[in-house]
Amino acid sequence: MRSEKNVESKSENAGFESEFTVRRLCDVECFEHIHFNAEIAFVIDGAMIAKTEKQEHLLTRGNGILIMPYKMHNYKTKENVDTIIIEFSPTLIEEFINIYAVSDSVFELSPQIIEYILSIVKSKTKNTLLQKAILYPIIYSVFASNRNDFEQKSSGKIFQDALNYISENYSSEITLNTAAKAIGCSYSYLSRVFAQSTNISFTEYLNRYRILKSITPLKGSDVTVTEIAFECGFSTLRSYNREFKKYLKVTPKEYRRNGFDYFVVESEL
User: Fold this and answer.
1) Hey, which end of the chain has fewer CB within 10 Å, N or C?
2) pTM of the predicted model, to two decimals?
3) What does the longest C-alpha to C-alpha distance in the chain come to?
């Protein structure tokens, strides 16, 4: 039977560290959200809808989707579904530094690969080697299904330089123009590279990055919300509250007081 909303969140988690987490869920639905990590979701049985930015994808048995960092996304159960959702740091796979998806990357896994992954997940062993043992067969399937959508570009270094600039200067007042000057390219070229690499604008990416950077002090310190807003680069508390609620559906104070899990419907298998 399908789970009801607002039930206590439960899942089978493989127990890996935060840079790599695995959840096996049924009847999964979640708020639209973003995070630093990349995410893979694939269906073992049943069907669900995955939405990334403004595109929707129907995933059925054996189908999966790779969602790159900073992309807004959510899931909604189409029918009773058994699924695996993996969050992982892109640093676990070095090739992610130079490769980006120009479209949402839907792929298909063979039954043999699914059984192989499930056997590792069930072991609940904390081991970086096993993390990669899960990821590489999936990434291979992603590439096999999307050969024309994954490209290595000469613009990759410009994009990476822009990401580095944001990570080093997000707490300051920065713009697309200041970023372009800092990395040595034109305003228009950087804008085009950013749009091609992320499907969102520089400013949108910057706001998402700042919101995600604000979560750690919100959860783990007594610093005031106003101080956190300014430390993360927002010029006013109002703009911080607005952007935070836009992406996480609650205000910073509500997040700090009640905690937050973007999964609103999920149940243990």
Assistant:
1) N
2) 0.71
3) 57
